[in-house]
Amino acid sequence: MSKEEIDKEEIIIRNYRTSDYEATLEILRELDQTFHIGLKEDQWKQSSGLRQFKPNLKRITLIAELKSTGEVVGMGMIEALKNPLGQYIGYLNNWATKQEYIGMQVGKILAKRAIKLLRSWGCETVRIIVAWGFPEKLLKVFEQTGFKPIQIVLENKFENEQ
Amino acid sequence: MGELKKSNRDICEGLTDIYLMYFDEARGHVPLFIYPEEKFSDLVHNKTFMRPIKYHPIWFLTVDEQEALDHIDLEFKGYTFFGKKFFAKSKRKKKRAGLDDETPETIIIIISLPNEVEIFGDDLIRLLTKRIIDHFGDKLYELIEYENVKDEVIKTPRIKEIIVEGEKIKKRLENLISTTCGQYFSSVIKETDTNSIKQQKALSYLALKGVDVSHLASGEKDSTFSNIKLFDPSTRNKEALKLNYPFNISEIGIIGDSHELEIIVQNTTDEEIRDVIVKITHVKEFFEKEIMSQLVDEWFPQEELVFLSPITPQVNEYLFFIIDNETEKRLLSQKIDINILTK
Fold it and tell me: What is the mean pLDDT of chain B?
């Protein structure tokens, strides 16, 4: 099923506001249901998406809003993290689009803006963390924009330990 | 008012002591002037009396370091000692190699106030420091020369000149301090906001000290001591107390078990604020340590930002500043005591 692409002029990319809490929680729930990102609702607070500053870390949650209705249709968190070698590495985390807008290029518009922002923060590299088992065709899409797989991250949740 | 009228000096007597010190390259920290002056000769060599002055944390900070704060305070035996350090012009021949005549003098001003009225210290030290710099900034080195030579056995004509000039400066300095303190305390009493806690506290303390303040209210307004209304919280004008800062701390908390301090601050204006530095520091054993300094190049209208800082073991007090990067003007400062935060 092909969907009509949304023009970038129809989307506003802005920073998260506390009033976006419910909308982002809904998107995160959807993401968690599909990819089990380990969402704990009580830990996603109203202030969690605000721009954060701490030593060696900058974080912002970007919101994609539909200009015509003001609806939040996508979100993505970006982080600039200083590694032990003193270089800032940019990360795109928890990238998600509202179910009915998937395939309409919302994520692409959001990602372009995010990469621009990470560059302005002085990042030398950008990494995208994706969920295990995510569609291989998407990997090809990323590769076309210059992203190459470099690491596999293994995780063991402590709550699973006997 | 006649008999009850008191001079500026009488008002300040017993209320505040002011110490002006300088850094002598050969002798270390040396008292230059103490107000009231009688105390200078009597108490300057009294180790117990001078203990809080000698061990005041201001000594351990450079002029640049202490500039981040308005003043450095020390509490000792019912008094608060407010300290400030500044440079003053010099043409004095120095006694250490590497220093030339123009090397500025390091001056320290410490004012002591009883804890009951320590709320005045902030304004008073700022005012006094400004006036001393304005009126004596280029004269203090002459006072230092005077202190260095006044006890010489053989007094050459040059030394005599220095002594005469020094005595004059001392007299004028005493007048300036006396006038400034008198005016300051009188202005506190005369403030139009008669409900301010500051004024109420001042009145209570001054009354307790037996000072009749009716003389302060001369002129058009006949608001004598007894005319000033007592503080009534129910009539407090909340709007008047609202501070006009562009930032507001909306939340301060400790994040779960992560031992991190979370401070949420909002740009309360409808304009984008550019180029501000957010600093979090703590003071441990008199030394201020910066644990976070973050440049925020753009802060959107009404936007809330989160600042996270690690909590240092054994340190409970933190200072949070927002500083304009260009003018270095402090736009917000807040002391945070983690003991009173709810975990």
Answer: 75
Residues of A in contact with B276 (CB under 8 A): none
Q: Which residues of A24-52 are buried (b: 16+ CB within 10 A; e: fewer)?
A: bbebbebbbeebeeebeeeebebbbbbbb
Q: Which residues of chain A lie closer than 8 angstroms to B300, CB-CB? A: 15
CB of A148 within 8 Å of a chain B CB? The answer is no
User: What contacts B289, CB < 8 A, 6 or more positions away?
Assistant: B281, B282, B283, B312
Q: CB–CB of A23/A66 below 8 Å?
A: no
d(CA B73, CA B81): 5
Rounded distance between C-alpha atoms, residue B215 and residue B194, angstroms: 17
B131: three-class secondary structure by DSSP: helix
Nearest to B305 among A53, A55, A57 (CB): A53
Mean pLDDT for A36-58 is 82
Q: What is the DSSP letter of A6?
A: P
Q: How confident is the model at residue B2 (pLDDT cuts 50, 70, 90)?
A: very low
B140-149 and B157-190 helices, crossing angle to 10°: 130
Mean per-residue pLDDT, A62-72 = 90
**Tokens 């301010």 — which residue?**
B196
Do B264 and A50 count as a contact with CB atoms less than 8 A apart? yes
ipTM (interface pTM):
0.73
pLDDT for B281-299, tens place per residue?
887 666 778 888 888 888 9
Residue pairs between chains A and B whose CB atoms are closer than 8 Å: 41
Q: Show residues of chain B in contact with A17, CB under 8 Å.
A: 303-304
List, edge to edge, every strand of the sheet that includes B273-284.
B287-299, B273-284, B317-324, B330-337
Three-class DSSP labels, B89-130: CCCCCCCCCCCCCCCCEEEEEEEEEEHHHHHHHHHHHHHHHH
pTM > 0.80: no
Which residue in the set B251, B260, B307 is minimally distant from A53, CB to CB?
Answer: B307
Torsion-angle region of B256 (φ positive above 0: left; ψ -120 to 50: alpha; else: beta): left
Average of pLDDT values for B222-229? 46
Distance CA B59, CA B28 (A): 10
What pLDDT digit, counting tens, does each position of B91-101 carry?
888 877 777 88
Q: Residue B206: how many CA atoms within 13 Å on its side-chain side?
A: 25
Interface of B to A at Cβ within 8 Å reads 251, 260, 262, 264, 278, 291-292, 294, 296, 300, 303-310
Choose from A16, A54, A59 for mutation: most chain B CBs within 10 A. A54
